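=== RUN LOG ===
request id: a7f3
mode: sequence -> structure
chains: 1
length: 78
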Amino acid sequence: MEKSKYLDVALKTLSQVFSDGGAKATIDVMAKLKLKDVTDIDAKTISACNSVLHERVRMLKGDEIATKFYSMLNNACR
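=== RESULT ===
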């Protein structure tokens, strides 16, 4: 998957849980730190990034919302 497509999917999904600004800030940090030298993202990296986002949502919003978010994000990345 192209990095820009993944980041767009992740941003749209995260925006359903956080404010647009909060979601954008999270995705911007991920893009700079985890994906800065990547143009295409393999399945292993997508899984790792999704896990990081899931954990962030879980810590801030709780298990139930995080589980729903993780499912939506994984489905959107297929």
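=== NOTES ===
The radius of gyration is 11 Å.
Helices lie at 3-14, 20-33, 43-61, 63-76.
=== END ===
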